[in-house]
Design goal:
The chain has 93 residues and is mainly α. The protein folds into two domains: 40 residues, no CATH class; 36 residues. It has a two-stranded antiparallel sheet with strand order 1-2. The radius of gyration is 33 Å and the shape is elongated.
């Protein structure tokens, strides 16, 4: 599929036809995809600076690891409660 542009000069019997080699529909789709991919892979425009890897924010690190440890602890506690309830219901204890 090629795009064609016709230009009529001052004399009506002369018509110039220019044919380009790029498809219009594919060009538009590829431009759309390239813009979408470049926006997905780029940093957020709201990030003012890069994170400091030399001096980490120890409060955030501690809260992250503490929260993860608390959630794992609750998971193990709930699992042991569920196992004990299963054993009682099925007469295994």
């Amino acid at each position: 599929m090629f795009t064609r542009a016709a230009r009529i000069c001052s004399q009506p019997q002369i018509v110039t036809i220019a044919v380009s080699r790029r498809p219009v529909a594919n060009m538009t789709l590829s431009n759309l995809l390239s813009r979408t991919v470049s926006k997905v892979g780029s940093r957020s425009m709201f990030t003012a600076s890069k994170p400091d890897t030399v001096h980490p924010n120890w409060l955030r690190v501690g809260l992250s690891f503490g929260t993860a440890a608390l959630l794992w602890g609750l998971l193990f506690k709930q699992h042991s409660t569920d196992v004990n309830e299963y054993k009682v219901r099925n007469g295994l204890e």
